[in-house]
Write a structure and sequence with these properties.
Helix content is about 45%, strand content about 20%. The chain contains ten helices and nine strands. It has a nine-stranded mixed β-sheet. Strand 5, helix 5 and strand 6 form a beta-alpha-beta unit. Helix 1 crosses helix 10 and helix 6 packs across helix 7. The longest helix is centred in the first third of the chain and has 38 residues.
């Protein structure tokens, strides 16, 4: 029995070392990629994606990155507030203002606000809350406000001076061609400053939308690179969308050390 226990413990410790080795390798590679972004003043054009957990946002800031993308929902109760979370299931009760309190706002480059539930029913309340947050934290300078709403009342936020972006539907190439004029009319009615879409859709935007929309409309995209992969930032430098001056923001996947890692480390030191 002791021999079996010893064998199992050896296997367990070996597995922990392998896991930690992988984590440390990914962290090392990410540090190199982030160092490139910071040294070339690309933080803000490149933004870490879905930093919805407070611990994740804190890790990003600790790494010297001053840009984040956050999913959020708006609620009109109690004067109105934004709750961080992709949907009700994943929201954890933290408000956007709680996050703002921890951000060094004078150093922030960009805060991408992906607001999931904008409508004509709440857009006035949303503007009121944004103005409150701007007066207190100065968010208008760095905020990128994104919504997939098709309602023309979205123009209220655009007209108030916020950088608004319309989240394009996940159309196929043929659907982009078929709906191009419809999208053009919509973004003109909404007075948006930009459109946002996954990087794989960039060729469709260039072919079907760019020729018919205002040259002032900017682009924001995602699914670009994973920061944990070795020298992956260099692959992006060759992408057409990186070279396009209209593409102002590219979201990337920031590697967060699994929460269990401190436990792994504690167990290793305990048994050594």
């Amino acid at each position: 029995m002791k021999r079996l226990f010893s064998l199992l413990m050896s296997l367990f410790i070996f597995t922990l070392f392998v896991a930690l080795g992988v984590i440390f390798y990914f962290t090392y590679e990410q540090d190199k990629n982030l160092a490139y972004l910071k040294s070339h003043n690309l933080d803000g054009r490149f933004v870490p994606h879905k930093e919805n957990r407070k611990t994740k946002m804190e890790a990003v800031l600790a790494d010297g990155i001053h840009s984040v993308e956050l999913d959020m929902l708006f609620y009109p109760q109690n004067g109105g507030y934004f709750e961080i979370g992709h949907d009700k299931k994943h929201a954890r009760g933290y408000t956007f203002e709680e996050y703002l309190r921890e951000m060094p706002m004078s150093e922030m480059k960009k805060i991408w606000m992906d607001v999931k539930n904008v409508s004509s029913k709440n857009v006035d309340a949303i503007l009121s809350r944004l103005e409150y947050l701007d007066a207190k934290y100065g968010i208008k300078r760095v905020a990128l406000f994104e919504s997939k709403t098709k309602e023309s009342t979205y123009h209220i936020l655009s007209d108030a001076g916020y950088h608004t972006s319309y989240y394009l539907p996940g159309y196929t190439k043929e659907e982009f061609r078929a709906h191009a004029q419809e999208i053009k009319a919509q973004i003109e009615a909404q007075h948006v400053k930009a459109i946002s879409f996954p990087s794989a859709k960039y060729p469709y935007v260039k072919e079907y939308l760019e020729p018919i929309i205002s040259q002032d409309i900017l682009y924001h995209t995602w699914h670009t690179f994973k920061a944990k992969h070795s020298d992956e930032v260099y692959t992006i430098l060759e992408k057409d969308y990186y070279k396009d001056a209209r593409v102002k923001t590219m979201l990337y996947d920031y590697f967060h050390v699994p929460y269990i890692t401190p436990l792994f480390s504690a167990l290793i030191w305990h048994f050594l």
